[in-house]
Amino acid sequence: MPNILDFSLADFFYNDNPDVLSPPEDFEEWINHPRVRESFRFFEQQLLEAPRSGSRVWSGVDGEKRDIINLTSYNYLGLSTHPEVIQASKDALDKYGLSASGAPLLSGTFDLHVELARKLAQFKLQEDCILYSSGLGGNMGAMQGILRKGDVLILDEKSHKSMVDGGTLSGAKMFFFDHNDMDSLEQKLQQAKGKRTLVAVEGVYSMDGDLVKLPEVVSLCEGYNAGLYVDEAHSTLIFGENGRGIGEHFGMEKKVGVSFGTLSKAFGGVGGFVCSNAKLIRYLKGYSSPWNFSCAPSPAVVGGLLKALEVATRDSSLRDQLWKNVRYLTDGLKSMNLDLGGTQSQVIPIIIGSSGEKLMQFAAELQRRGLFLQPVDFPAVPANSRRFRISGSSQLTKEQMDSALNIIEDVIVKGLRTGS
Amino acid sequence: MTKDQIIEVIKQNIVDNLDDVKYEEIDPQKTMKDYGANSLDMIEVVSCSMRELKIKIPRTELADIKNIDELADKFFEYAEKN
User: Fold this and answer.
1) pLDDT in tens, A118-130
2) What range does the domain containing A353 cover?
3) What are A29-42's pLDDT values in tens digits?
4) How far, in Å, are A17, A381, A387 from residue A378 at the CA level?
5) Which positions in chain B touch A382 (Cβ < 8 Å)?
6) Fold of B3-81
7) Beta strand pairing status for A375-376 and A197-202?
8) ipTM of this model?
9) CA of A16: which chain B residue's CA is closest?
10) One domain, residues A187 and A137
């Protein structure tokens, strides 16, 4: 491989090594190249404390154990470390133990699971809810449970891998429309005419932080008699007057056929949930493999999640603080003329451009300066818009944000200016 | 290996991976999207063709390719190097 540094993880998916238990031969050559190894230093770094806005990381960059300002964890509302949530989780742990010790159908459903599912359905103004042990399992399981060969799944091209994998597993024909482009969506709906069709979008797109054009998507779905699935992983508890998400934000909750959410982001736990009409949820329980054939979520986590839902919805204080912080960070970054893409949320990209080398150089320097802000490289994002991605949090103090902005200015802004 | 032979390989992989596409109907000046390919189908066609041609091109170099003919040009460039 003479041009080894032009390759990425996108190039080794297909494996033609005759030994099925080995990766492609050139993968080894690529991944062991010193420059490639350097970029992998940022993956799987160990957090030594809770993912608060101030935490501690065992750096993969220089091996140092370092206090950091955390702009990467999804702990949007700080609920994973909220004292009431931790206490509720401890209480559930004491009462029920660590594991559900069974799949939901046979022995893994506890009163806690039923209560959380009921409360989530009420919260989302839907009839019923099904809980999954992981967010990926929820999206994948819903797609695989709803769709069949001969059906059509139309996805925004920036949809999460879990929906794409679920679509693949279902055997449905998949069409991708250009991101947030309603003409492109309509063209795909035309192509799908006469077939059972599901349109899947995200409330907040996870790499760009922009919002779905929900009113237009709803109108097209109605016009073509297609079902609408909204992934609210990054918008639940964040958007809408009551935190119910993008559906509420646009006043269109009743138009959403299936509302998906994760329990690992603003909720501060782990898992996924799908809310819809009671008949569909009943049906999913018969055919959605990640529910049927996986152990139910840990009761200790579910106990904490019940409290997290209560804390996040009893008033708007955490959400208000998050938005205040997001405005402060966004204003600060905009004043430095950084490219923040089309962000409209707490997910704030800082787009660097096409240089992977620069991205990794900045990432290492940010971390040495005490800022935990992870790089996002191709193929996770297009090769011409490599980036950093900030996850805003209600926990961030003004001092932490000022320090973070100073470090970003010193490293990224000056680095881009000097071309170093 | 000529460019025409490369186009034949790509066309055959399009037929193998997409529904309802006939070999004779494929016009190299068109895109795979025109024949109903989604992004996953395109990765499949490109990867299968590269395997068959025994070439490996970084995905980043394929981002700006506009149609099947340009893809064949890129494949030809690499096949010649081998």
Assistant:
1) 999 999 999 999 9
2) 37-70+317-418
3) 999 999 889 889 99
4) 24, 5, 9
5) 63
6) 1.10.1200
7) unpaired
8) 0.81
9) B51
10) yes
